[in-house]
Design a protein that fits this description.
The chain is an all-beta fold. Helix content is 0%, strand content 46%. The chain has no helices and eight strands. The strands form two sheets. A four-stranded antiparallel β-sheet has the order 1-2-3-4, with no helix packed on it. The protein has a four-stranded antiparallel β-sheet with strand order 5-6-7-8, with no helix packed on it.
Length: 97
């Protein structure tokens, strides 16, 4: 789906949207100073990095919600999160650990 190489590790999942591709990279070995969940425009520019639920937490899973309006994610630190699809902003986080 996407020809761009990963930023740091390997690409785990890609979700196509009308404005680009949401990319989830494997959290193990990923740089801790940026999010491993990001959106890339169709011309290859990064639109946003997803806001993290806490320092040193990265994302492990991602999918669209039932309406396709936001992203549902899990983090390495035991959070279930809702992410705004257009901005990458954290809308909600719940500790599940």
């Amino acid at each position: 789906m996407f020809d761009r190489p990963p930023r740091h590790t390997k690409i785990e999942k890609e979700l196509a949207t009308s404005f680009g591709v949401v990319v989830l990279e494997h959290p193990v070995g990923y740089a801790r100073d940026e999010s491993n969940l990001y959106c890339v425009s169709n011309d290859g520019k990064i639109i946003w990095f997803a806001e993290l639920p806490e320092a040193n937490a990265l994302y492990t899973r991602v999918k669209f919600d039932d309406l396709g309006e936001k992203l549902l994610t899990y983090s390495t630190r035991g959070h279930a999160c809702d992410i705004d699809l257009r901005t990458g902003k954290l809308l909600k986080k719940v500790s599940i650990s």
